[in-house]
Write a structure and sequence with these properties.
By secondary structure, this protein is mostly helical. It has one domain. The protein contains two helices and no strands. It has helices spanning 2-14, 20-55. The longest helix has 36 residues, at 20-55. It is a single-pass membrane protein. This is Protein translocase subunit SecE.
Length: 60
Amino acid sequence: MVGYFRGVVEEVKKVRWPTRKELVSYTITVVIVCTVMFVLTYGFDLLVTRGFELLGIGNS
């Protein structure tokens, strides 16, 4: 068991951690992609809902 944790510590030492600049850049990228996906999904949902309403399908 101790050997396992020593191995884990050695592997963690080999990890190249991102710089602060990279971390900020990656975070901004993720937020932008999530926002774009939300807007696209919301827009598609609105279009489908309106289409069903025009066809008389749904709870409206």
